[in-house]
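Postdoc handover notes: sequence design on the structure in folder B. Input tokens:
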């Protein structure tokens, strides 16, 4: 692995960091103009960059120990470098002049676990470029550029949630986000609660194709209902006349938006947990994006002392689940579930939040 000093050789650089996200409620609602409640992860991605001395750009990931070098006119690189190149291209399309760059990336966000490591890389890159080039760019516009980089250059037809969360959320509040107006509001977590995140260890196979299929089903449902998007459907009863599976897909989106709005009114942890459970069952039964591992992990989490509710988080088809639990109980509950699940199934689940270090701090504070 190259150190920062070896890579930059004493040339001054700018640095910027961005977190991943865990969505607490409001899944598959963003591309339906709906509502969601993500929080930022403690884990983050740090991007350092400087103008390169010559025509060659060099992007280095210390996490992967992988280096990509290319000249400006060449095709965009692949792998981690593509997200960075996509952000550069987005700025250039907007009229910015970006010189060839030397970029050094470091991250403790697990990739492929459903915590939006790609959004974190995009947002950190754009923050660093904003500083390097002294561009005026507010955090919402920056998030939209990051999302467009993902859609156009990484080929994932995602909504706005991940990049908005990485750009605007923090670890201690929920970011209430309206995907239609892009209005945001930071809300406190329910009193005396904290979150637990467990990675199922199951890679999100088929996620992209199934994701696009769900998007298309939602558009079709909205079209049949004569509304611009499913956000505009007032009540769950209004979708009952749709043919299957559009009825089920629309029912999930309409009921999920209602759950987010209920939670955003400021409910206690028990009520919030019940809304999370209902969200999981809706994602499992109506939206059909869960898998056995996520069903089982969320069941095990619900059975732990101090856990109020649990659901899959992110797109589904693998990745992670999130639970809300009594403050201070998360590390014990999450560790117990991971141990039990791996012993029962031979799986590779792991506790992502609380991270062991912060749990240790919490324990010593409680001692
Ligand atoms: C992925 C997408 C988001 C969102 C979620 C599902 O994370 O990137 O835009 O659609 O799935 O809620």
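Designed sequence:
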């Amino acid at each position: 692995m190259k150190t920062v000093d070896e890579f930059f050789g004493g040339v001054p650089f700018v640095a910027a960091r961005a977190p991943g996200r865990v969505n607490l409620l409001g899944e598959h609602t963003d591309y339906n103009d709906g509502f969601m409640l993500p929080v930022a992860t403690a884990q983050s991605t740090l991007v350092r960059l400087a103008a390169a001395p010559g025509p060659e750009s060099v992007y280095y990931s210390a996490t992967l120990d992988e280096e990509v070098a290319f000249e400006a006119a060449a095709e965009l690189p692949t792998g981690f470098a593509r997200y960075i190149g996509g952000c550069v291209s987005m700025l250039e399309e907007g009229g910015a002049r970006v010189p060839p760059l030397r970029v050094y990336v470091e991250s403790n966000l697990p990739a492929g676990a459903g915590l939006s490591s790609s959004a974190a890389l995009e947002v950190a890159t754009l923050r660093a470029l904003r500083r390097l080039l002294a561009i005026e760019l507010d955090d919402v516009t920056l998030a939209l550029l990051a999302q467009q980089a993902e859609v156009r250059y990484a080929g994932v037809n995602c909504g706005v949630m991940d990049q908005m969360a990485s750009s605007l959320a923090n670890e201690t509040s929920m970011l209430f986000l309206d995907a239609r107006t892009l209005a945001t509001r930071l809300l406190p977590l329910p009193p005396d609660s904290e979150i637990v995140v467990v990675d199922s260890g199951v890679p999100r196979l088929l996620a992209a194709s199934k994701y696009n299929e769900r998007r298309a089903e939602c558009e079709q449902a909205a079209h049949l209902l004569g509304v611009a998007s499913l956000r505009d459907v007032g009540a769950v009863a209004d979708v009952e006349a749709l043919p299957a599976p559009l009825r089920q897909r629309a029912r999930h989106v309409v009921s999920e938006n209602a759950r987010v709005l209920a939670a955003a009114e400021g409910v206690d942890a028990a009520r919030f947990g019940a809304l999370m459970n209902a969200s999981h069952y809706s994602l499992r039964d109506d939206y059909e994006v869960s898998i056995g591992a996520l069903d089982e992990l969320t069941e095990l989490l619900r059975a732990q002392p101090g856990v109020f509710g649990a659901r899959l988080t992110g797109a589904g088809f693998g990745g992670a689940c999130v639970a809300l639990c009594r403050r201070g109980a998360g590390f014990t509950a999450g560790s117990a579930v991971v141990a039990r699940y791996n012993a029962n199934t031979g799986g590779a689940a792991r506790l992502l939040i609380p991270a062991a270090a912060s749990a240790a701090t919490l324990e010593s504070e409680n001692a």
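Context for whoever picks this up: The two ends are 39 Å apart (CA to CA). Don't rerun without checking with the PI first.
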